[in-house]
Amino acid sequence: MSNHILVTGGAGYIGSVTVWELIRSGYRVLVLDNLSRGHRQALPEAATFVEGDIGDVSLVEGLLQTYRVTGVIHFAAFSLVGESVEHPGLYFENNLMKGISFIGTCVKGGVKTFVLSSTAAVYGDPQKIPIPETHPLAPRNPYGFSKLGLEQGLESYRQTHGLKVAFLRYFNAAGAGIDGNIGEDHAPETHLVPLLFSVALGKRDRVYVFGGDYDTPDGTAIRDYIHVADLARAHIAVLEGMERGLKHTAYNLGLGRGYSVLEVLKTAREVCGRNIPYEMAGRRAGDPPVLVADNRRFLEEFDWRPEFGDLRAILASAWQWHRSHPDGYGRESHERA
Fold first, then answer.
1. Interval 65-101: pLDDT, tens
2. Distance (Å, whole) CA 124 – CA 145
3. How far apart, in whole angstroms, are the C-alpha atoms of residue 298 and residue 33?
4. Contacts of 159 (CB under 8 A, 6+ apart)
5. Do residue 155 and residue 284 come from a single domain?
6. Phi, psi at residue 142, to the nearest 5°?
7. Domain range for residue 248?
8. CATH of the domain at 105
9. For burial by CB atoms within 10 Å, which of 69, 100, 228, 286 has the most?
10. Into how many domains does the chain fold?
11. Residues 234, 308 within the same domain
């Protein structure tokens, strides 16, 4: 069987869009997902799907051999900051312990390249804005700690076994797949953009803005948003870049510009042409006031530029998805999640 790229967590939001982009780029793709938080419906028929867990060593060993996996893109993880603060053990077991075991299995199975879906949460409270990759790594929450642990584990395998690795530190992914059929659908939903459009569609009566007393121009938290399809294309650029050798292992992925929660709210109202009521609430534990990427390292090293270069374009694609999929992928997916 021909070589495959293994995408773990490929039925999730960012993972599924990346799978579509990989298929379009001519890759053979194997998806491993336990569907605890993903959606089988989000995947293209051309991808080979296996329902299972990265912690199942015998399953992973068999897949690596059967599909002659040479490269891995690792998305499989829990990713809710608030949940990680309330249930740290869940995040250390699922993200870190299973993740480290999975990496070891991959190395033994002959995997040569490994791209990690990481996060800006590894930086903690930023000492400098925009945040460069050289910023001190000081996570404030268990989610960030779990991702940093995976980065460090991969670095050890790079030094010891010559594994080619890359850590892609995302800022805030938003938007929908370019064809409009793949979008953001979590249960429960905690991300700002889908919550805003859920209110616009009458599925909720209001959105809560967590924290109005930050040291920012309007008092609300500022985040750097990047379109999910641009994020997906960045993974392919890194995979291809590994063939010629990467200058670095860590890369920030964002637009390099921040928007406050109230700015996102205002733009969402303009995009959908509907009122979106909101209510101020207290800060969430573990949320830094400002997260904006210094993305120059990635821009300089790769032939990649975001197709969705501003917030309005990102939100317009998200609105297209939510308007045409008011129940996301459907009740069955939500019950399963």
1. 999 999 999 999 999 888 999 999 999 999 999 999 9
2. 10
3. 28
4. none
5. no
6. -60, -35
7. 4-174+225-253
8. 3.40.50.720
9. 228
10. 2
11. no
Q: Do 49 and 78 belong together in one domain? A: yes
What pLDDT, on a 0 to 100 scale, did the predictor assign at position 63?
98
Q: Is the CB of residue 245 less than 8 Å from the CB of residue 165?
A: no
Residue 178 has pLDDT above 80, yes or no: no
From 67, 143, 259, 329, the catalytic residue: 143
Judge whether residue 221 has pLDDT over 60: yes
Q: Is the pLDDT of residue 1 over 80?
A: no
Say whether pLDDT at 159 is over 80.
yes
The pLDDT, as a whole number, for residue 336 is 37
Cα separation, 165 vs 158, in Å, equals 7
* pLDDT for residue 331: 47
Task: Please tell me the distance from the alpha carbon of residue 71 to that of residue 106, in angstroms, as a whole number.
Answer: 9
Domain co-membership, 131 together with 272: no
Whichever domain contains 301, its CATH number is: 3.90.25.10
Whether 143 is catalytic is yes
Distance between CA atoms of 65 and 76, rounded to whole angstroms? 20
Residues 68 and 153 placed together within one structural domain of the fold: yes
Token pair recorded at residue 281: 């609430």
Per-residue DSSP letters for 307-318?
SS-SHHHHHHHH
Q: Are 252 and 294 in contact (CB under 8 A)?
A: yes
Please tell me whether residues 65 and 160 are part of one structural domain.
Answer: yes
Q: How confident is the model over 180-204, as a mean pLDDT? A: 93
Where among 253, 268, 299 does a domain terminate?
253
Q: What are phi and psi of 174, to 5 degrees?
A: -155, 175
Same domain, 157 and 211: no
